[in-house]
Amino acid sequence: MIKYNLSITTGGLFVPETVTLLKTYKETESWDGVWKKVEDENLLQKTHLRSAKNIYTDVKKRLSTAYPWEIETIMHSEDPEDWGFICMAFTARRYHILRDVLVDIINYKWQGGDLVLESFEIPEYVNALTPDHPELDKLSTRTREDLMQILKRDIRDGGLLEKHTGRTFRIKLPRIGDSLRNLYVQEGSIDYLRFLLFSEYEIKKIKGDLT
Description:
Layout: H1 15-28, H2 31-41, H3 49-63, H4 68-76, H5 80-94, H6 96-111, E1 116-117, H7 121-129, H8 134-137, H9 141-157, E2 161-163, E3 169-171, H10 178-187, H11 190-195, H12 200-207
Antiparallel strand pairs: 1-3, 2-3
Helix pairs in contact: 1-2, 1-4, 1-5, 5-6
């Protein structure tokens, strides 16, 4: 059982910050050059340099899990929905708890035709994970609550949730460009096909596993 990295509780997807940092990297061609702009020009528009440095450091760690074509797409695209989905995908690679929620709740409910995500569903799921992930039991009540909100916000910012009624959200297909969708299909990772809400039958067909 993979131990969860729970530093996800320090922030969301950082979509605008990731886009800004990557487009600046395209200009400067070095992370040192990017950091200089963060310091000198308040590139991330944060009140305190420490906050900017924390985001800069976390985004770099997340980007280490990104496919080269994901980075290139962000650098050259102007589509916020593509940006959001890509950031969610590589964030889920670094933070496996987000991946598990996307597969075991969001994809599962979508395939069953149950599109409403109730406010209690992610907390109940995380509580059920705790026996296999004792690191979750070490979280304070406040941090645990923050984790639930961040997981939901990351999935919303990744394009899979929209506001429904009260405290509920509705699951929806991510509206990403055809070229980006095709790249994920060609990559062949089952997890990311599930993030795109493909059914198990569709996934088997894509991977040529039908008999």
